[in-house]
Amino acid sequence: MPKKPYRARRAGAKHRLPARRRPGAPPTFARLLQPLVPPVTGPVSEAATLPGAPLVHFDYADELKIKNDGLRRFWHEHHLPGEPEPVTASPRPRGYRTTSKRKAILRGDTLYLVFGEHLSGSGPVFRPSRLEPPEHAQLYRFLQAKLSQPAFRLTARHLNYLIIRGSYAERAVIFNVDTLNGPLVRKLKLLADHLQQQPEPVAAAFVYHDPSRSDYYLESRRPDDALQMKKLFGPAWLAVEFGGCRYRFAPTSFSQINESMTPVMLNLSCDLLDPAPHESLLDLYCGYGLFSHFLAPGYRQVVGIDAAGASIRAATDNSRLNVGGSRCTFLARPITGDLIANLRLAATAREAVLLDPPRQGPRAGVIAALAQRRPRTVLHIFCGIDHIPAALADWQAHGYEVQRIVPLDMFPGTAHLETLVLLGSVTSNSFLQRHRESATRTGLPVPPTRNAP
After folding, report:
1. 239 C-beta neighbours (distance < 10 Å), count
2. How many angstroms separate the CA atoms of 126 and 103, rounded?
3. Is 89 contained in some domain?
4. Cβ distance 9 to 215 under 8 Å?
5. What is the rounded distance in angstroms from the CA atom of residue 68 to the CA atom of residue 77?
6. Which structural domain, as residue segments, surrounds residue 308?
């Protein structure tokens, strides 16, 4: 999921494989996976039966087979063009999530950290997930024990969510609270002092003020200046490094949850786009500049756009950290069809587009406006498979067709895939030959001839 304004799933949403669908509704990817999943035999640990992780208890090779078969069925059921390549495996299929969250529920003298909105029965005070690094579980257990003590009862009463974000090397803790006053801040600072004494590195701690106690652990609408975020200790940003590029970003900014898979995705995006030094790249939903800075050395200029002001400020600041930063320009704008239609880049013979929208996809009119610009090539990244059919139909209606489909297992253990779809204009006669040569150089599968424009 870099990329786009940070929006969390509803805390109470259940992402299990659905048992049924509405009559006449097109089959979802999760629905098509269901008959492919063999029944579980023998005992399954509680940590393996978690919401949103229906495949976590399988061997990873079996999980990949299920996803490959399900993706082929999805493509066939929706009569989509082209043929997906085999799912690219995650280097770290378990313990990969660099962002995790727990809902805080105070019952009596005990604070429970749970996945959903409600606590049913007398469940455990905390349940680990095999998808999260063990350091997350250690921090949650420590915080659950501390917050259940009488000295921290005030904090427990006002706590909405506990969030851990960062990288495999270091982590930050975010306390989402429904009020912010002097006594509560003093308790949180005392808790932060305890965090800094933990054996596992905690780089920073923040308080996020959410008086609405919303269903999102970081509200879907956040003030541009992030006034609701208060630092308790550590740097004011999170930091990661990929492919020789360094990035800093705000704790509220979107970042990929699978750190091990991010370099794979970046390298594939470069191979698919095949940058040319006389081209411009338009990077939409650019976030803190993950793709922009990685790809900038191959382009004449890169223009990144995102509606999240905090992310754009981070992207601009990251220009000082990376060799291609001088070629990057970033704009904080809502991405609409009108914006795309009126956008003017420096005069250039050709243009490429990287489109990496939120799960729900771009706004209506964005694809049509992009197609009117006639970019040489478009890389559309989907973090929700079920939005692919409508988007591809839109691209085809405006003169673009599929060249390659590269699925990535960005979310092992779940019924989700990240899918990179390369599109080219039907008027670009040299498009296929160029990418056949690129695929041959990089050792990737050669695009089939039937996809030629």
Report:
1. 17
2. 10
3. no
4. no
5. 14
6. 253-451
Q: If we measure between CA atoms, which residue out of 100, 87, 197 comes closest to residue 140?
A: 100
pLDDT at 24: 64
List the CATH number of the domain containing 432.
3.40.50.150
Model confidence, pTM: 0.86
3-state secondary structure of 190: helix
| Token pair in block for residue 306 | 């995102």
Look at residue 119 and tell me if it is in a domain.
no
Cα four-point dihedral sign 11, 17, 18, 23: positive
SS3 178: coil
Closest CA to 139 of 113, 110, 108, 105: 113
pLDDT tens digits, one per residue of 229-239:
899 999 999 99
Residue given tokens 């035999």 in the structure block = 41
pLDDT digits (tens, 9 = 90+) for 77-121: 999 999 999 999 999 999 999 999 999 999 999 999 998 766 666
Q: Which residues pair with 134 in a beta bridge?
A: none
List alpha helices for 163-212, DSSP H.
182-195
- Angle of helix 262-273 relative to helix 431-442, nearest 10 degrees, comes to 140
Q: Which two tokens stand for residue 259?
A: 């750190």
